[in-house]
Design goal:
Layout lengths: L1 E3 L2 H13 L4 E6 L5 H13 L2 E6 L19 H11 L3 E3 L3 H4 L17 H5 L3 H16 L3 E5 L3 H14 L4 E5 L19 H6 L2 H16 L1 H13 L4 E9 L12 E9 L4 E9 L5
Parallel strand pairs: 1-4, 2-3, 2-5, 3-4, 5-6
Antiparallel strand pairs: 7-8, 8-9
Amino acid sequence: MKVITTVKEMKQIASDLKKQGKIIGFVPTMGFLHEGHLSLVNKSVSESDITVMSIFVNPLQFGPGEDFERYPRDMKRDQLLAEEAGVDLLFTPEVTELYPVEPSVTVKAVSRTEVLCGASRPGHFDGVVTVLSILFHLVQPDKSYFGQKDAQQAAVVDGLVKSLHFPVEIIPVHTVREEDGLAKSSRNVYLSDEERQEAPVIYQSLKSGADIYISHGIEPAIEHVEKQISAINGEIDYVDILSYPELKVPTHEDRRFIIAAAVKFKQARLIDNVIFSIKEEI
C-alpha cells in the first residue's frame, strides 16, 4: 500500500491510472476505521482494479460546538487496517493541503438537506459536498462507496453526482452492525457501559417502526419508535419517515422509504435508519 499526502502526487497517480485504463474504486473516510469502513473496502476490492481510500477529518462539515477537535484519530492503526483490507493507495492530506487558502468557491447542497441530520446541522452537507467535489476531482474514481448508516449523506452525494455530472457511480453498502444490532460507528467509543447496553434499542425500534408504517401509517410508527427510545437514557433528536432517496414527505405514489432516528447520549450522538419498500400489489 502506498501512502499519499499531497494533492500533486494524488493527481499524478490518478491520471496515470486512468491512462492505463484501470478501474478506480474510492472509499472516502474520516478515519478511525471500523468494520463498516472495511466493508466498503471489501466491496471496492471485489469490483475495482485499484482501491483508493482517503482519511481526512473535514473541518467544513463540523459546525460550532461540534466535535472536530476531539473526533477520534489513530492514523497508525488506520494505515494497518487499510493495508490488511486491500487498499492500494491511502490518501491522507493535511487540512492545509486540501484548503491551502480560504476557499473562494464552495459547493452548496440545496435539497435533501433540510430534514433529519441536516435540520439541526446547518451547513454540514455543504461541507460534505465541497470536500467530495475536491476528492472526486483528485482521485478520478469510477466508483465510490458509501455506507447506508448515514443514508442522508448517501442521498445527498447521489444528488451531487447527478446534478454536477461527475463521472462516478455511487454505490451504497449495507450498514455493518454489532451482534446486538448497534450500527458500527467511530463515535461508539464515547458511550458509557450503560449507554452501550441501551443503544441497540434504536435499531430494534426502527425495524418494528417500519412494519407499523406499512400496516398502520406514519403517526403510529413514529409514536412507537419515540416510545421505545424514550425508555432509555438517550435524548431523541429526531424520528422521521420520508421517501428515499428524495427525503420528502411520503405520498401514496412512493414505494421506497427511510425511517431514521438520531439520539443524543452524554458524549455521543448516534444515528441509524432502516430503508424499506412497499411492494406493488398484483
